[in-house]
Design goal:
240 residues, alpha+beta, Ribosomal Protein S5, domain 2, five-stranded mixed β-sheet, four-stranded antiparallel β-sheet, 5 helices, 9 strands, globular, nucleotidyltransferase, RNase_PH_CS, RNase_PH_bac-type, EC 2.7.7.56
């Protein structure tokens, strides 16, 4: 039994609350248990210089943790004048995950910036950020469609993400911080709603893991992302 009382294949309580920012073109507060991430989407009527004239748009992301998102205060990266390698890696992951499921020609030469701010962290901040960012970005596309800037929503698939790991010899899903910090294997799965792989990050923390163990993690991830995809559609008011 997990310390939270959850089953091995049970997600934490998940909520995806939309329209939480009155100014952003799209916004979603993603809550995976005690991990809370605010995701916003901002539309810009230009693209990076290297993309001009291509007829394609671009999606980019920024990620950050608020000073008291953790048990002890962490200094702001802006105050240090440099982003950590972890921050850079996560925001690139968010951008890649979204671009993988979008027709970049479907919204013209525009850039959409996704901002993911961790309000409270208890494990799985990057997976919550990706899952919430899909909702915020979809809302931004809906607004563009309402304004006749685009004809159709350019997403070709849904995308969401979930953490899985081997903890005390058992494959479990959606690890909180206590589980993540003690896991023998730690993995993050970015998948489409129909189980296709966008990205997998898997690390042996104490000892190598087997193909059988990896397959068990993959099975959990497919199940979990399927549940998250339903939550995303419900948050957006889309028919399931």
């Amino acid at each position: 039994m997990r310390h939270s009382g959850r089953a091995a294949n049970e997600l934490r309580p998940i909520t995806l609350e939309t329209d939480v920012n009155r100014y952003a073109e799209g916004s979603c507060l993603a809550k995976f248990g005690n991990t809370h991430v605010l995701c916003t989407a901002t539309i810009e009527e230009s693209v990076p210089g290297w993309m001009k004239g291509s007829g394609r748009g671009w999606i980019t992301a920024e990620y950050g943790m608020l000073p008291r998102s953790t048990q002890s205060r962490m200094g702001r990266e802006a105050a240090r004048g440099k982003q950590s390698g972890r921050t850079q890696e996560i925001q690139r992951l968010i951008g890649r995950s979204l671009r993988a499921v979008i027709d970049l020609q479907g919204f013209g030469e525009r850039q959409i910036r996704i901002d993911c701010d961790v309000l409270q962290a208890d494990g799985g901040t990057r997976t919550a950020a990706i899952t919430g960012s899909y909702v915020a970005l979809y809302q931004a596309f809906q607004l563009m469609q309402e304004m006749k800037a685009i004809e159709t929503i350019p997403f070709v698939r849904q995308v969401a993400a979930i953490s899985c790991g081997i903890h005390k010899g058992q494959a479990i899903i959606d690890l909180d911080y206590e589980e993540d910090s003690a896991a023998e294997t730690d993995a993050n799965f970015v998948l489409t709603d129909d189980g296709q792989v966008v990205e997998v990050q898997a690390t042996a923390e104490e000892k190598p893991f087997s193909r059988v163990e990896f397959d068990a993690l993959m099975d959990l991830a497919i199940q979990g992302v399927s549940e998250l995809a339903i939550a995303q559609r419900n948050a957006l008011g889309l028919e399931d």
